[in-house]
């Protein structure tokens, strides 16, 4: 296997290291599905404006996360602090971990 990959073949989805890769992948898929967003556009640095992610998508994603993890999020998620998809994944992962004792490190 060659370490000299062309730039186009390098991984472009480097999610924050504070989130386990499996949880990040699950949350990104959930955000894309529930928010009716283009999965191909789901990159960590993509801003929520670039993704056309607004309050309706936020509600759909919260409902999806609550159902997927059997938790209640309520109003604790601070969307105003999120600048891009990577930060949204971190915020949701932290929320899920706090509400799901089995996922806490």
Number of helices: 3
What percent of residues adopt helix (DSSP H or I)?
A: 40-55%
| Distance between the first and last residues' Cα | 34 Å
Mean pLDDT: 82
H/E topology pattern: HHH
Number of strand segments: 0
The proportion of strand residues reads under 5%
Pfam family, one: PP-binding
InterPro entries: ACP-like_sf (IPR036736), PP-bd_ACP (IPR009081)
Protein name: Acyl carrier protein
Domain Carrier: 18-96
Quick structural gist:
With 105 residues, this protein is mainly alpha-helical. The chain has helices at 21-34, 55-69, 85-99.
Offer a few descriptive terms.
single chain; 105 residues; mainly alpha; 3 helices; globular
Walk me through what this model shows.
- This protein is mainly α and 105 residues long.
- The chain is 42% helix and 0% strand.
- It contains three helices and no strands.
- 20% of the residues are buried.
- The model is unreliable at 1-12 (pLDDT under 50).
- It comes from Xanthobacter aminoxidans.
- Pfam families: PP-binding.
- This is Acyl carrier protein.
- Residues 18-96 form the Carrier domain.
């Amino acid at each position: 296997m060659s370490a000299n990959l062309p730039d186009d073949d390098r991984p472009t989805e480097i999610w924050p290291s504070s989130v386990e890769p499996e949880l990040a992948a699950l949350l990104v898929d959930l955000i894309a599905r529930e928010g009716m967003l283009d999965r191909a556009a789901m990159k960590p640095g993509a801003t929520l404006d670039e993704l056309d992610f607004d309050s309706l998508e936020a509600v759909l994603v919260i409902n999806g996360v609550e159902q997927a993890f059997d938790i209640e999020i309520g109003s604790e998620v601070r969307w105003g602090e999120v600048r891009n998809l990577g930060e949204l994944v971190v915020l949701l992962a932290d929320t899920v971990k706090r509400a799901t004792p089995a996922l806490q490190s």
